Amino acid sequence: MGKKAVKPRLIAFEVTRRCQFSCRHCRANAVASVEEELTTNQCKKILKSVAKYKKCVLILTGGEPMEREDIYELIRYGREIGLRMVMATCGYLINEKTILKLKKAGIMALSFSIDGTGADTHDKFRGTEGAFDSAVNAAKIAREAHVRFQINTTLSKININEVIGIADLTRELGAYCFNPFILVPTGRGEEIKDAVLDPVEYEVLLNELLRIKLKQKIKVRVTCGPQFARVCKQAKAKGLMEEVTGCMGGRGFGFISCRGDVQTCGFLDVSAGNLIENNFNFGEIWEKSKFLNEIRNVSDYKGDCGNCEYVGICGGCRARAYATSGDYLGQDPVCNYKRRDKA
Ligand SMILES: C[S@@+](CC[C@H](N)C(=O)[O-])C[C@H]1O[C@@H](n2cnc3c(N)ncnc32)[C@H](O)[C@@H]1O
Ligand code: SF4
Ligand code: SF4
Questions:
Q1: CA-based nearest residue to 182, from 58, 325, 323
Q2: Where are the chain's structural domains?
């Protein structure tokens, strides 16, 4: 984790804030209809501005990206200009017809969200009856159509006791990766801030995720949980070969909002600059933004993170620090680690 801007490997682009679900945790505050969103032309210019700077993996996200009628056109265009197009969806618009259209347009992988081992937990969390069945069905359809997919699961006090079951379900469905997200109390997530894991629960969870990863049957990646990099480093002796990275926001990863704002990630709602206002020059914002350069400079982090010898590989979740203290350079409140050789 250096100070200098490196070109991103992954950019998530929030193409809409429309969604038929009303999940309790939704960072995007997604709703069924919105008055305005980026036009097809603006979306294409944004894709072009990214591709000109770096031909990276481009995650279409939202809201529910499948709500956009032009989603296939955007995927096709992204592929034509050299981006590797993937999409995050909760699956209710995936069926035998739409999966073939996605494939034809050039989609390279999908993610589906599953937050419980059954409808009981998932549907309540997602505010929609039938949500669990539609996500499982979408995964089966993707598998049948030979489209690679991963499962995203937002973990909090609400479902932490189901994590092993969800990992098993992920494997049974044929996903290539299990990707837990750790709840960030932002957007609608602020209303369930009491469900954010406490440091001890979180440490136990990270070690459980490491055990699942070590079984080697499925890839495990963690989002909004950079302390997983610390736990993996501490457990190096247990036979983990792979290097696990911490928070990549503003480094290998970036986010473009539904207004064209460039951000570190979708969970930290601070703009580094607006692509429409700067005539679609992504590289300029990415390299010159004062905010992004502050985030890249871990030596200015405060509290336990500022004091921590793992800060260079972990970084703490800047979004959770901001959501809880208003300071994006502050400490991540869910971390249980305290440096022992310093006061
Ligand atoms: C914003 S959604 C967009 C894609 C799609 N609508 C979905 O739900 O999968 C992307 C991922 O972020 C997760 N997510 C949303 N709000 C979150 C929050 N406050 N904390 C952690 N993860 C969150 C969702 O559960 C989902 O897996
Ligand atoms: S988390 Fe995804 S599915 Fe849920 S309301 Fe937000 S955008 Fe929709
Ligand atoms: S104190 Fe901060 S930098 Fe250190 S492990 Fe915890 S979150 Fe990461």
A1: 323
A2: 10-296
Residue ranges lining ligand 1, Cβ < 6 Å: 19, 25-28, 61-62, 64, 88-90, 113, 152, 154, 181, 183-184, 186-187, 189, 224
Contact 310, 205 (CB under 8 A): no
In terms of CATH, what superfamily is 10-296? Aldolase class I (3.20.20.70)
Place of tokens 């429409």: 276
**Is the distance from CB of 74 to CB of 47 less than 8 angstroms?**
yes
177-182/219-220 β-pairing: parallel
Report CA(125)–ligand 1 centroid distance (Å). 11
Residue 320, ligand 3, Cβ within 6 A: no
| Whole-number pLDDT of residue 242 | 78
**Residue of the CA atom closest to atom 21 of ligand 1:** 183
Cis omega (within 30 of 0) for bond into 189: no
Q: pLDDT below 70 — which residues of the chain?
A: 1-2, 216, 237-238, 341-343
Token pair 């208003």 is at which residue? 326
Alpha-carbon dihedral angle through residues 77, 79, 82, 83, given to the nearest 10 degrees = 100
- Answer yes or no: are the C-beta atoms of 23 and 116 closer than 8 Å: no
Q: Which atom of ligand 3 is nearest to the CA of 311?
A: 3
Please tell me if the CB atom of residue 329 comes closer than 6 angstroms to any atom of ligand 3. no
